[in-house]
Amino acid sequence: MANVDQAAPVATSDTGGGLRRDVGLIGLMWASVGSIIGSGWLFGAEKAVVAAGPAAIISWVIGAVAIVLLALVHAELGGMFPVAGGTARYPHYAFGGLAGMSFGWFSWLQAATVAPIEVEAMIGYAKHWHFADGLQNTDGTLTTSGIVVAVVLMAVFVAVNFLGVRILAHTNSAATWWKIAVPLAAIFIIAIGNFHPANFTSEGFAPFGAKGVLTAISSSGIIFALLGFEQAIQLAGESRNPKRDLPRATLGSVAIGSVIYLLLQIVFIGALPHASFAKGWANLAYAGISGPWAGLATLVGLGWLAWVLYADAIISPGGTGLIYTTATSRISYGLSKNGYAPKIFAKTDSRGVPWFGLAMSFVTGVICFAPFPSWQTLVGFITSASVLMYAGAPLAYGVFKDRLPNHDRPYKLPFGNFISPLSFVVANLIIFWSGWDTLWRLGCAILIGYVLLGSYAAYAIRKGLPDAPRLDFKAAQWLIPYLAGIGIISYLSTFGGTGDLPLWWDMAVVAVFSLGIYFWAKATASEPEAIERSIEEVVVTDAPAH
Predict the structure, then answer these.
(1) Residues 350, 91: contact at Cβ < 8 Å?
(2) Contacts of 164 (CB under 8 A, 6+ apart)
(3) Which of 64, 183, 227, 294 has its CA 20 to 30 A from that of 344?
(4) Which one, of 317, 393, 333, 382, lies nearest residue 121 by Cα?
């Protein structure tokens, strides 16, 4: 058996067979922060308070804690394995080909659908200007001309990405400074002279009870808003000093995003005139509510700030869409390196850009405008797909803790044996809170992925291709029961299901079920020799650029 410490440098040489190590700590952190501060801040506070009342503050705290738990696990894994498209590779190392292919698809699925939703947010806010009349129907869906504009915006995202990761990092860095400054300005400017503490209790602090608080976490955009810390992980293959910078960038971006979103929710509730929610928080209404923060600024007499916010509604979603276009191509790059997708996805141009994966991210984004023609229709779907992707990291962490105890860990997670299973339970609860109506649609998308990737894997195995994946069914024997089990519990629950499992009991079942899957996965995971072989293959397939 090879010494695991000898395998430690393997991943650090992963520059993607052409990817260039041009990104430093600020570039990595800003990639994540730029993804976190997107269209979620423009809509999240309003959607959350409608779902939970002022208790939405609790929803944001729960959401932030959940994301922190997942980010902590990712921080250790990112330092251990600084490879491009890392979230798609950790389960591959731990459980072999079938699990790697599955979580790779989850990762690609969520990344590919974020750019379209950000485009839809840009168009939605743009209707404030007369030149954008006719781009949306009254129900928020795109018209034919709106779809044309959406396609053009997707093309812009792709064009910037073709300029290379260094240009992208500089472009995103400038946009992210703006994206942080504007929400902070809105927080402090609107709060001055417009903060009413009585708003938090006058119509009840938690009018919809615990279920409203929990539902808001997934369905109103809270988790969606906080998503994005993994972007630093996805760019690990292009980091100048990944072992030092990845943990810092991951945890730093979560801290910045969580604080900003919590302050936004507090100020939004406190600044509303009582007349806007006098009929109950579920009936919140005021002029301009379709652009919640800009409308609120106008309502309290800050018209100039409203104009800034309308401009930011183009810049913030645009920056997030730009980064997720990058991520989609890097994830497909990783899938190709692991043998799950054709090798053309791993081809890079003279600037080190995986050009075919980038082109396919554009095609996929355009296709998304047909079944998901509005911002709201995509939120729950993306949330569930994203957290399902994140759930692979705690499982892989538990395996590496047991199977690779001596592997180099630049960042070592305190109390990892406790935090890892806890984060897996929390991830599954977030997925569960999305509701049955969202999860059955996600299940259909998962099946499509199995057909596409499974067909290529079967072809590669049948033809005896050198990169044909090893589909280790034994190590991934828990996977299908896991996916099916979450679906069945959701169907029986009070979160959009039949209600046969009462509130609280359904969540208890999810928690117990999740722990069972966690320890089942650890017990049947790949042996150390197989894990090391998967890691060492990175050296053969991913040589550094010169």
Answers:
(1) no
(2) 20, 22, 351, 352, 353
(3) 227
(4) 317
Instruction: For 154-169, write each residue's pLDDT tens digit.
Output: 988 888 877 755 555 5
Q: Is residue 75 a contact partner of residue 250, using CB atoms and an 8 Å limit?
A: yes
Task: Determine the length of the chain.
Answer: 546
pLDDT surpassing 80 at residue 316: no
The per-residue pLDDT for 11 is: 34
Candidates 525, 450, 460, 408; CA nearest to 78 is 408
The CA distance from 50 to 286, in Å, is 13
Q: How far apart are CA 99 and CA 443, in angstroms?
A: 16
Contact (CB, 8 A) for 35 and 228: yes
A 10 A CB-CB count for 491 gives: 16
CA distance 488 to 301: 50
- Do 246 and 231 contact (CB within 8 A), yes or no? no
Which are the contacts of 444, defined by CB distance < 8 A and separation ≥ 6?
A: none
What is the mean predicted confidence (pLDDT) over 141-166? Answer: 81
